[in-house]
User: Which sequence fits this backbone?
């Protein structure tokens, strides 16, 4: 099935969630809770981990579009390899299959493909729930990015802070993270960005925030950061382009869509906040 060849396991599961049986859902939960280890074990061990029968594993693999369990395992191994890919290997991978066109066109085509694929695979209900959490005035929102995504986290923080109160950016210096963790209270939201070559420090922070009662919202790539194990919601976006680094075009789009949704759901309060901010901006320019 061609779809299984172009989509990650997480995308296939999310895309077909409405058709999953009870046994399928148990298998999906077991796989995502211990990705990819459970899926690379024997079919008997996978069935035991999900508390289902062995034939259920075979049906699950076929429902995702694979010819059988070995094909599902091969896809998992390929995903692990893609997650570990470094910036030196990426151009070599693309050069063997990309057309000889200008880099602007190649990047634009890849970015548009990523956006289209992301919109197909993202569950709109999950996206809406994420926006409701981040727009809830009773909750504080903390924003954290990793080595590659810190600027995207800053972009979300800047815009969300203009739309509502109680938004804090986790500082770039990890030496200050323990102090920030102390500021997280039960019910707070941690919006965290983590993409392949995943950042262990960011994962540790998310786990600690979870222990303090925060609701973790993960923005990640199609291979899914390990933070998904502690996240209440995960948005998996496509990022692969013909470059040494992955693209954040779709991530920025998602951030802007989130901010737009938060503004819409709290428009009266946001409008008043923006008016007050504009007043102080003008006062600052006049030197008052």
Assistant:
């Amino acid at each position: 099935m061609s779809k299984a060849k172009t989509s990650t396991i997480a995308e296939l599961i999310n895309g077909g969630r409405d058709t999953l049986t009870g046994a399928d859902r148990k298998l999906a939960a077991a796989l995502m809770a211990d990705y990819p280890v459970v899926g690379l074990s024997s079919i008997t061990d996978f069935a035991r981990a999900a508390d289902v029968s062995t034939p259920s594993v075979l049906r699950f693999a076929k429902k995702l579009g694979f010819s059988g369990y070995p094909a599902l395992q091969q896809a998992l191994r390929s995903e692990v390899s893609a997650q570990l890919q470094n910036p030196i290997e990426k151009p070599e991978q693309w050069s063997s299959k990309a057309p000889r066109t200008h880099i602007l066109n190649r990047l634009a085509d890849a970015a548009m493909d990523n956006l289209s694929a992301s919109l197909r695979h993202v569950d709109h209900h999950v996206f809406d729930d994420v926006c409701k959490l981040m727009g809830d005035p009773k909750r504080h929102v903390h924003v954290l990015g990793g080595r590659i995504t810190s600027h995207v986290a800053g972009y979300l923080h800047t815009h969300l802070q203009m739309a509502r109160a109680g938004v804090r950016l986790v500082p770039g210096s990890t030496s200050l993270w323990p102090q920030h963790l102390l500021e997280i209270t039960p019910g707070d939201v941690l919006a965290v960005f983590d993409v392949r070559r995943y950042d262990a420090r960011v994962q540790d922070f998310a786990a600690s925030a979870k222990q303090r009662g925060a609701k973790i919202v993960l923005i990640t790539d199609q291979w899914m950061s390990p933070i998904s194990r502690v996240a209440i919601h995960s948005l998996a976006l496509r990022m692969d382009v013909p470059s040494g680094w992955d693209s954040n075009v779709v991530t920025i789009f998602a951030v802007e869509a989130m901010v737009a949704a938060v503004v819409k759901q709290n428009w009266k309060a946001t409008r008043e906040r923006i008016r007050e901010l504009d007043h102080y901006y003008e006062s600052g320019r006049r030197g008052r």
Observations:
- The chain has two domains: 2-83, 120-281.
- The radius of gyration is 21 Å.
